[in-house]
Batch of 3 targets.
Target 1
Amino acid sequence: MDLDVFVTAHRIEWDRLEHLLHRGRRLTGTEADELVALYQRTATHLSLIQSSAPDPMLTARLTQLVARARSTVTGTRRATWRDATRFLTAGFPAAVYRSRHWWIPTAVLSTLLAALMGWWIGTHPEVQAAIAAPEDLRRMTSPGGEYETYYSSHPAASFAAQVWTNNAQAAAMCLVLGAFLCLPVIWILFVNVLNLAVGIGLMSSAGRLDTFLGLVLPHGLLELTAVFVAAGTGLRLGWTVIDPGPQTRRSALAQQGRAAIGMAIGLALVLFVSGVIEGFVTPSGLPTWVRIAIGVAAELAFLAYVYILGGRAARAGEAGDLDATERSAELPAAA
């Protein structure tokens, strides 16, 4: 494509669109129709220039022009309680449901790895010696030791807030850093699995694995599920960089990235529930079976939420993305 000829042929249309956007008064019906038509044509021109003859200055001008025109055509929209309700009842659970082929294998493999590493640590004294000195290990694993007092070492409310903040940050890092070819997500996931494995191994070697599980399961089921969902979504985002499928890489990343942002908000709420359980239920004087039952109930409620509400919304076409009217226009790509 001859860029100079193309610009000469369409400059009048661009200038006219810019003139309509600068009008200080309301447009007439005819002018509004003209603005919509010019916006559509200019968006097509921008796509052609980007794919065939990219020119930085011209691309920047048309991108700004298309964005302003789109804002004028679609108007501004404020978030409402209806949007929040739709997100919680359809968008978020549908996004989790659609990514289940990523986070379920992540959860299974991570759990098996934690169990295997925990068994290895628990059955090899030399590995335990490499982790800490014998007196330190006894201080951690003995009745009333650090593993038990950890959950009651701070006031419940502040402890729950601290746990929630740390877990939400870890989940957000998995979602955001997934675009870097999955590697940061794998590292964050490994660190979490390793910490769990060390606890399993050390407490099992002291004959107190039941105590450890009684402390971890009430909040850990929901907490780890949220981490696995975040990690699976991050891995999916990273794989999109490698293989975007039939979409362009930019379009595929934009779609997955928007869904990941929504996922971060939803998982923050899930981790808040987990943090409340960890701060108030785990260190409580309730019988172990009651505390574990509360954790199991929270986990089952989340899975039902995802598979019932999320599955229904996903089958209806919900993807956890923004509405078509709220996201940037998809420009056609050159074959």
Note: The two ends are 14 Å apart (CA to CA).
Target 2
Amino acid sequence: MTPVPDKAAPPAAPVPAAAAHAAARAYRPALRDGVLLSPPLLRGPRTVHLIRHPVTGAAFEAGVKEHFVISRLDGTRNLDDLAPDYAARFGRRLAEDNWNLLLGLLGTRGLLDGAPDPPPPAPAPQRANTFWRGTRRLIADADATTSRLHRVLRPLLHRAVQLPLLAAVLVMVLTLTLHAGELLDGTAELIRRPVVLAAVALFLWFSITVHELAHGVAAQQYGGHVGEIGLRWRFPAAMLYCSVDDYLFLPGLRAKLVVAGAGAYINMLLLLPFGVWWFVLPADDTARSLLAGLLLLGSVQGLSNLVPLPPLDGYRMLGHALGTAHLAPETRAYLALRRSRGKAGATAAYPARARRIYTAYGIGSAVLLLLALAGTCTVVLLLLR
């Protein structure tokens, strides 16, 4: 007998639209573990939040309304639970279409619990290193290196140790300011001693290395992740750098300010023993004038990093304090709009706070550049004399 073939399974019945609608409303999504959300950041006329994927490291911008919803996705709330809070905050109910669209975007980017990881973002194309400009990584695993340093130095990072040291640094800076004339004379004397000047230059180069490591150790103190430590050069200047991948997501303003300012602080801390030595030496001691030159050069190197101009640490600190992102480029864009003719109301979209910040920073940065130029010329002339 010829076997009778099995009957084909009947096609699955389509899910009724009403059932799909009910399932979507009942869905209680949760962000996957490790997703980082930044505090609000002013960027141009908008306020944005950054969202960082814990695996790929990709960061996305979200508006205030989107962040309001995303920050509440803990697996216990559905659309009906969130809608009243959303309406109370923004004066209108959260539309179901917008809810579904937002969840779709979060799922596509792998930010929801259970969603697959998206492919890692393609690395940005890098320019080939040349004699004139380039970048080179110096430490294979910067995060592991700074983590080890942090474990060793952790007892010294306690507030009971750091507050007296910070007070001593401030006293030293004030004392050096009151003896600026002696420091200039000592620098002129130092320049006439090539061997000693070379030793001072070597010390200052060492302090630059410690400066970058200090950023990494401070980031480890607050749970940050150090992505890279390397050398960046733009002929004739060369400088080390330390990139903290998630510094914008560190908890609280204080953590961000400490991480950004740690380099300048450690530079001044390294000068503290020399400052004490200089202070106790007699006025006619030859070593005192050489130490004065070291203190002036080292102070300029350390404190100049606190000037709020890019790419200096002070620029990052100011951005953190103001809660802004890309302060300098956004200032240029705003001022360009203000100068443009035939575009009446081009800056109307900027809130009052943004207009004040960008105007003040534009004026302040121009004044700082003029002061820096005038100060440099004055010091050169005094040293030549």
Note: The chain has a mean pLDDT of 88.
Target 3
Amino acid sequence: MNDRAALELLVSQGPLTRTRIGELTGLSKPTASQLLGRLEAAGLVRTTGNVTGRPGPSAQLYEVNPAAAYVAALSVDHGGVTAVVADITGRVIGEGRAAAETAQDAAGEARGGGSATARVVTTAVDGALAKAGLGRGDLHGAVIGTPGALDPHTGELRYAPHLPGWHSRALLGELGDALGVPVVIENDVNLAALAEQYEGSAQDHDDFVLVWVDEGVGAAIVLGGTLLRGATGGAGEIGYMPLPGAPLARGGPDAAAAPDAGGGFQSLVGQPAVLGIARGLGLDPADVTEALADRRVVDEVARRLATGLAAVVAVVDPELVVLSGVVAQAGGERLRVRVEEELTGLALPRPQLRISDIEGDPILTGALRTALVQARDAVFDTA
């Protein structure tokens, strides 16, 4: 327990002296010295210079050894896979990207060329490892963020018909065999919520909902600090939720059709819908950011968003709703204010409403955080 406490302090606060570690843990100087000697011998900590500018002998600084373990975090979209590799401290040291294979490219799978999905994943990871100067043998584990969710009963990816090749029940094992490390597949919006919980807008809340408004729409629900997954991993799949003004998604979440399965909430507020609103007003925007520069588009998107949020808020009653994804980021504070105004009176609970302030890709941030927690649980266990 003392070893783990010291390691967590070094991860969160950076290099510390033996005296400071003793003060923060309540350990005596001899015990702190023994602890650091033990961790240094195990390759988990290393010295990193001395404290200068103080009277008396300079004190040695200790830090977590970055080479104690390396992890990979991946984000999947319809265009391909992005991967980052980080050391045990969380510092990203390599990034790679691999485009999704077309049906023609994947024909080799039928001729014994292996899983097309595994090839794309390993290509992205290998690219990140190469930039970090590492190989697959250096990895401790990998976490992959993907649309949809793995059904805990079948192991099959559901709610993501637009990701061909990702629906095999053997997928998790195939990816683990390909990379040579344990692999976790997690819903991308759930990972974005974990990022908000760890270093974003939801750090001070145990009950919140993250609503992802992008090409598609989804939500992650955190209650009592715990992520709600549902019986089949589908908690938060609000993109298929029926709403006034939207055609019903009767094809279902597993239909091999369009990403919105023909209707539902995301057919009202996803990126294609926002561009459609703008064009209906006589505009010709190049992208969602340009579309949401027009006040009329913001007003209509806010009205639609509030209608969907009212259903979620009425059921979950969260303290906070965080809006994330391309549409939310493009609309920014002006969209947030208008959604808040439209939400008034639609649902009795009145949660706070915030725009995500995570820098970079929140899905990768959440995947990396998850991978690091798992690696540290294993590597930092000195018992």
Note: The chain is about 40% helix and 20% strand.
